[in-house]
């Protein structure tokens, strides 16, 4: 996760060979006043992004979200793979809690990266992969259950936590797991298309 976007004033030095853009700058240079002769603290300043530390609340939400995705996703996998009856709605509850965990982790990531008060323009936000997965997870909660819908979130959670805990055995398989996510998404598109057309 990267730090939320904030602003901080820092000094910015320019080279003395820059052509002046105004009469004042030209006059200043004619008097021998340039960025070379002016003290750094008195030079022109610009706003840059401040790299803040990790927010402990967002970190805990991120960690709990991915852990929930793995725990409840595993329960849902067992029920769906073994065709177990949905007794007491355990499968349905676990399925949606798994997605809810992913939503929590993805929201914490976006909040940490941009800050909820500093969200980028919609075009930039939509281009973010985390945001795309977040929107899909919200949609999947309200639609029919499918093991293929939660596989990407499950594997992403596994990879994220493995990277965080430095589990080399899993990280060595990262390219393979990433390919599973890609093929699963392609299969899901085809499956949903066929289901829409013929059912």
From TrEMBL:
<keyword id="KW-1133">Transmembrane helix</keyword>
<keyword id="KW-0472">Membrane</keyword>
<feature type="region of interest" description="Disordered">
    <location>
        <begin position="1"/>
        <end position="49"/>
    </location>
</feature>
<feature type="transmembrane region" description="Helical">
    <location>
        <begin position="88"/>
        <end position="110"/>
    </location>
</feature>
<dbReference type="GO" id="GO:0061024">
    <property type="term" value="P:membrane organization"/>
</dbReference>
<dbReference type="GO" id="GO:0005783">
    <property type="term" value="C:endoplasmic reticulum"/>
</dbReference>
<feature type="transmembrane region" description="Helical">
    <location>
        <begin position="176"/>
        <end position="194"/>
    </location>
</feature>
<feature type="transmembrane region" description="Helical">
    <location>
        <begin position="59"/>
        <end position="82"/>
    </location>
</feature>
<dbReference type="GO" id="GO:0016020">
    <property type="term" value="C:membrane"/>
</dbReference>
<feature type="transmembrane region" description="Helical">
    <location>
        <begin position="131"/>
        <end position="156"/>
    </location>
</feature>
<feature type="compositionally biased region" description="Polar residues">
    <location>
        <begin position="23"/>
        <end position="37"/>
    </location>
</feature>
<dbReference type="InterPro" id="IPR051645">
    <property type="entry name" value="PER33/POM33_regulator"/>
</dbReference>
<protein>
    <submittedName>
        <fullName>Uncharacterized protein</fullName>
    </submittedName>
</protein>
<keyword id="KW-0812">Transmembrane</keyword>
<feature type="compositionally biased region" description="Low complexity">
    <location>
        <begin position="1"/>
        <end position="22"/>
    </location>
</feature>
<dbReference type="GO" id="GO:0071786">
    <property type="term" value="P:endoplasmic reticulum tubular network organization"/>
</dbReference>
